[in-house]
Amino acid sequence: MKNNLLLILQTSEITSENWLSSPGVIGTIVLIFIVLFLGIFIFIKRLNRYVDVLEDNKKDLSEEDFERRLINLDKAEVDHILKARQQGFKDEEKPADTVEAPSKYSGFIKKIIDPENPLFDEKARSTTQIKISKELKQIIVWYLGAGIFWLVFGTLVGQYLGMKFIWPDLDKISWLSFGRLRPVHTNTVFWGWASLAMVGLGHYVVSRTSNREIFNYKWSKIAFWLINSCVFIGNIFLMAGINNGGGEYREYIWPIMALFAIGLIIIFFNFYKTVATRKISEIYISNWFILASLIWTIVLAIIGYFPSYQDGLGETVIQGYYMHQGVGMWFMTFTLGLVYYFLPSALNKPIYSYSLGVLAFWTQMLFYTLIGTHHFVFSPLPWWLQTVAIVFSAGMFIPVFAGTTNFLMTMRGSWNHISKSYVLPFFLVGVVFYFVGSVQGSFQAFRFTNYLWHFTDFNVAHSHMTMYGIITFLMWACIYALLPKITGKEPPQNLVGAHFWLAFIGLIAYMVSLMVGGTLKGLSWIEGNPFIESVILMENYWVWRAVGGTLMFISHIIFAYNFYLMVRKKKKVKHSFLPDRQAQKETLNTQSN
């Protein structure tokens, strides 16, 4: 009773006056500007690179232009050029640290590399190729290929749902209703795209850092089919109206989700046995994050679907735990483990601080486990439980600052290579969004900002800021960093650039529009306006949501095509210059007859 009275007093005191002075609102605005500054920074770097290329093209004659001018030269001009070139070759050799050729006529080298600088993933061509076993390569391609299929399918559903906000009467088919398709979209990109892509990349990291093959590839294949079966059958059931109720991200009924849980158990034992039988003494920190995420998610699946907890307020507590643990302890923890390997590998340098990584790991394990209830602030849940969730949400500043500092310091000195590498921009966006999205989530846990933004479209923006801006961008970075090195095939630069900018600009349009619209909707509710007014004011913001979503979906199509180019097998053409012996015999027999 006391808690209920306190709840009424708290809610009655909240007004829309001076809402801009709230620390959570101010912090969120600052974070949005950080993201916008990031986009401008990358664009300027790319633009400078483009200007340099144009200037180089002006200096260098094209082959056709050179031939045309050569034909039109008279004898005196030819003698002058030859004499100048001969003089250039006779010039004394300059010191080794020179960066200019002695004469523009003296040779044919157009690019001189300073040996003191490390080599990065060049946009033109990656010179590094890694040999791995056929079994490992097959597993990686399987998991990534299936994950990308679910990415395209899941975001196609999301694109269709975005259009329904603009045209609500788009269809009248029960299977395509918003209530059925929305969980299809979320569960597909969660358990289909992100989970399969993470596990596929995890096979490479665990094998590489353990200096041995994966313990059992048959287990990997069994887990592959179990997870894909879970997503396929689960989506059919969701579209048919068979679901687990209102639990967000756990709409699959328990027999179907059991397939996913069994798959995770198999993957965990496979990875654990690989690390346990490693050929080196140390356990690299990536494996800490990967194995911990698997353990937590197995526990999470059991708790989230255990029937005795699913009653009344107990279900609400478990829902907050399940929903936030799924994002933080599965996707975020596993992806951070991947970044601790692929980011230093792409930069050809070690991680900045192993100690910061350990600090980030243990504080992530401590604080993330008790913040789920911040989704239910001002609910009938105990006030002390809500307060604990808010305090631990603020505690998440520690692992986020530690991880972000570690990654940015590892990238220190590499900013000029943003224009040369198509891997680094994805990493940079993912790392910045890791900071922005995580800190913004902590700000949103504060009581006023929670009251302002909860149940509005702002939460959709926040979820895309994290699951898309962090998880998906970092996943793309890891894929682009790995696949060319194990397949020997590079994606076209212009298509990778199109993928990056369409996804990034689409995310910004999607995120900012829903943040602004969600804020206005929350203020409208606080002021006591009729609900329909908040729906009407969202119209233009939903249009921008659809525009951003369309750009993002197009980028996924391009990414899927880039993946195909990186893994496709070229058909071998057999050249037979001499007929085989059987053909010779048949020819001789025919001639003799």
How would you describe this protein?
By secondary structure, the protein is mostly helical. It has two domains: 22-53 and 123-568, Up-down Bundle (Cytochrome C Oxidase, Chain A); 61-120, no CATH class. It has helices at 2-13, 23-59, 63-72, 75-90, 134-166, 178-210, 217-239, 254-276, 285-305, 312-347, 354-367, 383-395, 397-410, 424-444, 447-453, 458-487, 493-526, 531-537, 539-567, 581-592.
Proportion of beta-strand residues: under 5%
Gyration radius from CA atoms, angstroms:
29 Å
- On the 0 to 100 scale, the average pLDDT is 83
The CATH class of the largest domain turns out to be Mainly Alpha
Query: Which residue ranges are poorly predicted, with pLDDT under 50 across at least 5 consecutive positions?
Result: 1-9, 92-124, 573-584
- How many structural units, i.e. domains? 2
Q: How many helical elements?
A: 20
GO molecular function, one term: cytochrome-c oxidase activity
Protein name: Cbb3-type cytochrome c oxidase subunit I
Keywords: Electron transport, Membrane, Respiratory chain, Transmembrane, Transmembrane helix, Transport
Domain Cytochrome oxidase subunit I profile: 336-593
